[in-house]
Amino acid sequence: MSTQTSQKTYFQNMDILRFIAAYMIVVLHSFFGWKRYFGNPEFINTHTSPGAFNKIENIIHNFTIGVDVFFIISGFLITFLLLSEYEKNGKVDVMKFYIRRAFRIWPLYFLMILVAPLLTYFLMEQSPGYLLHFLFAGNFDIINQGTKSVATDHLWSICIEEHFYLICPLLIAFIPVKKLPRALLTIILISILFRAYAASYIPNYGSVLYLHTLSRIDILALGSLFGYLFHQKKLEFNHSLPVRLIIYTIFILLLINVDYNECGTFFAATMKKYVFVLIAAYWMGNFLFNPDAILSVKNFNLLHLCGKVSYGIYMFNPVIIYLFLELYKKYNYTNFPLFILLVNVSLVVVTALSYRFFELPFLNLKEKYAVIKTIGTTKDTTISEPAIVAIPDIVEELEPVPVTLTINNELQADTPPPAV
Question: Which of 201-210, 243-252, 370-379 has the lowest mean pLDDT?
C-alpha cells in the first residue's frame, strides 16, 4: 500500500472527530447561554427530577473537553505529517509549515478581530485588547482583563495553538527524531509544574489554569507524542471488545459524575484532566485506527462535510447564539426548541458560505506550500494541514451586559469556564 493510500485510510474520519468536538461546544454554549438568560429550559423543569437535571448539566458542562479533543488532533496530525516530511526529504521546511498554518488559521481569525469593533459597539460590550489579540496573545489579555467581547473571547485557544505551532516544527527540524519524545515529555512536565505553582501561589487561579499557554500546551504536546508513536508504529489499537467497553464505561461515568473543569484541589488542578484526556484519546484512536471499532465509519458521509467547516462552527457559534438570545430577550420569547433549531440552521448557512467563498480560496493557496499531501475526503481539502482550531468562547461572553469574568479555583458546573 502506498503512503498516500495508507494515509487516506488512516485519516479520513478525522473530520468527524472535529465536528463532534465543535458541536459539543455549540451544545455547551446554547444550553448555558439559555440558562443564563431564561433559566432552565421548560421541558427540563417539567420532565426531569433535580437529581437527573444535575447529571445532565454536568455532562453538558464537561463538553468543554471538546477543546482538548481539538488540541490532541492538532498535535497528532502536525507531528505525524512533519515526521513524514522529514522521512521523505531529510528535513522539515519550517517556513512552508508556517505559511500553511497562516492560510488556514489567519483569515477567519483576523476577520473576527476586524469586525469586533462593530460588534462591541452595537452590542454595547467592552473593547478587548486588540493589539494583544493581533499578536496572538489574547489569552493573556483575558487572564488580566477578563472577557470583553463575544467577537474575540473565544480566540484564546487559537492563540495557544499558534504558540505550539511556533515550536513544534522547530523541535522536529532540529532535534534528533529519537529524542523527540523526551522534548515533548519535558513540555508536559513544565505544564504540570506551572499548574502546581499556580494552584499554590496564585490567588483565584482558575482563569490562569484555563487560559494560560503553559497550562494548556501539554495536551497539544500529548497529541504530538501520540503522532510520534503512531509514525514509529509503536501505537496500536487492538484490544478486545470487553476491555474497550470497560474503558468507555469508565469515561461515561466520569462525564456524568465528575466535573472536568473543577480545580479546587491540588490533584484536580494538576493531574485530573489527564484521566479524561487519555481515555478520550484512547476512544479517538480506536475510532480512527481500529478496524473492529464499535462505531467504525467506512464511507464518506454528511459528518465528514460538517467536519470540513468545523472551524467556521467554532468561530461563528458564539456570535450567532448571542444574537438569538438577545432577540429572544427583546421580544420576551422563550421557546427553547425553536432557539436550538434557529441556531443550528444559522450555523449551517453561515459556515457553509464562509467555507465556500472565504476560506476555500485561502485553502487552495495553502496547498501550493504542501510538502506531504495526505489525501482527505474531498478534492479541495487535504489533511496535510490539520484544520484544528481552538474552540470558542464561554457562556460568560454571552452576558447581555459586559462584565469582567472572575473565575475561582473551583469552576463549578453553574460557572462555566472562560471561552471554550
Answer: 370-379
Q: What is the pLDDT of residue 301?
A: 86
Q: In this model, does residue 377 exceed pLDDT 50?
A: no
State the cell numbers at 32.
Answer: 448555558
Domain residues for the domain of 377 are 7-236+294-398
What residues contact 179, with CB distance under 8 A and at least 6 apart?
none
What is the reported pLDDT for 283? Answer: 94
Q: How far is CA 395 from CA 66, 146, 420, in A?
A: 15, 13, 8
Residue 287 lies in a domain: no
Q: For residue 79, what is its C-alpha cell?
A: 507531528
Predicted confidence at residue 197, as pLDDT, reads 97
What phi, psi does 215 have (nearest 5°)?
-80, -30
Flag whether 269 is in a domain. no
Distance of CA 96 to the CA centre of its chain: 24
The residue type found at 215 is: S
The DSSP call for residue 62 is: G
Assigned domain for 132 exists: yes
Number of domain units in the chain: 1
Burial of 88 (0-12, 13-18, 19+ CB in 10 A): exposed
Instruction: Tell me the three state secondary structure of residue 378.
Output: strand
Give the model's pLDDT for residue 408. 38
Whose cell is 508556517? That residue is: 98
Interval 108-128 mean pLDDT = 91
Cβ contact 279:286 at 8 Å: no
Residue 409 lies in a domain: no
371 pLDDT higher than 50:
yes
Kindly report the pTM of this predicted structure: 0.86
Task: Tell me how far apart the alpha carbons of residues 312 and 306 are, in angstroms, rounded to a whole number.
Answer: 10
> What does the pLDDT look like over 126-179, one tens digit per residue?
899 999 999 999 999 999 999 999 999 999 999 999 999 999 999 999 999 999
The b-or-e profile of 249-285 (16+ CB within 10 A means b, else e) is eebeebbeeebbbbbeeeebbbebbeebbebbbbbbb
The 8-class DSSP code of residue 371 comes to S
| Amino acid type, 354 | S
DSSP string of 257-308, one letter each residue: HS-TT---SHHHHHTHHHHHHHHHHHHHHHHHH-TT-TT---S--HHHHHHH
